[in-house]
Write a structure and sequence with these properties.
alpha/beta; globular; single chain; 8-stranded mixed sheet; about 240 residues
């Protein structure tokens, strides 16, 4: 699998676990607030290098030394399900005795289902970008919401453990949007609201558009939090 880079240790990406994080290049979406823009498309020499280099061998050499010290590996991107050998990679990680968390945008339910059939992912995460009707506002392009719905349904029915999450961006999201999202994923095991942070993003204008606008995350949590097994705000 193509790995553009990896983080050796984090407590943030897999709830309650110490994990390494691997980053895969490429994504169909163009979310303006994406905080890994260099992994979305090769736009300059630095990002071109990320698309050409593959650190898989280096990562497995590192992982071999971390047996008994790390709990698992989080696979993120970009979009990992674009990688043709993502399942093979997951199998290798599992064979070494590590837990696996897979982040996905859910656009390829057939890949999600294939991986689920193999029963090799311990924790899934899907970004719920927006309401079904406004999804394009957060993804930067028109997509098939039906495919996202299929992936969401797969997680809710079959995943061992999972979370849904929304990066809340003032100017893109409004408080009332989360009532519609709650209707969509009602009863989900875990739903997280992630506070938007500026800085390195795909479209810098998203920060300008967010200025002077707010979304009351605590208010949203209080209103819809009882519809999920667990709901929290990540700040």
């Amino acid at each position: 699998m193509h790995i553009s880079g990896f983080e050796k240790f984090t407590l943030l990406d897999y709830p309650g676990k110490m994990v390494a994080v691997v980053f895969t290049p490429g994504c169909v979406f163009r979310c303006p607030f994406c905080h890994n823009p260099e992994l979305i498309e090769p736009r300059d020499e630095a990002s071109k290098k990320l698309f050409l280099e593959n650190k898989e061998k280096e990562f497995f050499e590192f992982l071999e030394k971390r047996k008994g010290k790390l709990d698992g590996v989080c696979i993120t991107g970009g979009e990992p399900t674009l990688q043709k050998d993502v399942l093979l990679f997951i199998r290798k990680v599992k064979k070494m005795g590590f837990l696996v968390k897979l982040d996905t945008n859910g656009l390829f339910p057939e890949i999600v289902e294939k991986i689920m059939d193999a029963d090799v992912v311990d924790y899934w995460a899907i970004d719920i970008k927006h309401t079904k009707e406004k999804y394009h506002l957060a993804t930067g392009k028109k997509i098939s919401i039906g495919k996202i719905e299929q992936s969401v349904e797969l997680l809710m029915k079959r995943a061992k453990d999972y979370e849904f999450r929304t990066t809340v961006v003032p100017g893109i999201h409004k408080e009332k949007d989360f009532d519609a999202i709650a209707d969509w994923i009602d009863g989900a095991k875990a739903y997280y609201l992630q506070e938007f942070r500026g800085g390195k993003v795909l479209d810098p204008s998203v920060e300008k558009n967010a200025q002077g606008k707010t979304v009351d995350l605590d208010g949203v949590l209080n209103r819809i939090g009882n519809r999920f097994g667990k709901m929290e705000i990540r700040r």
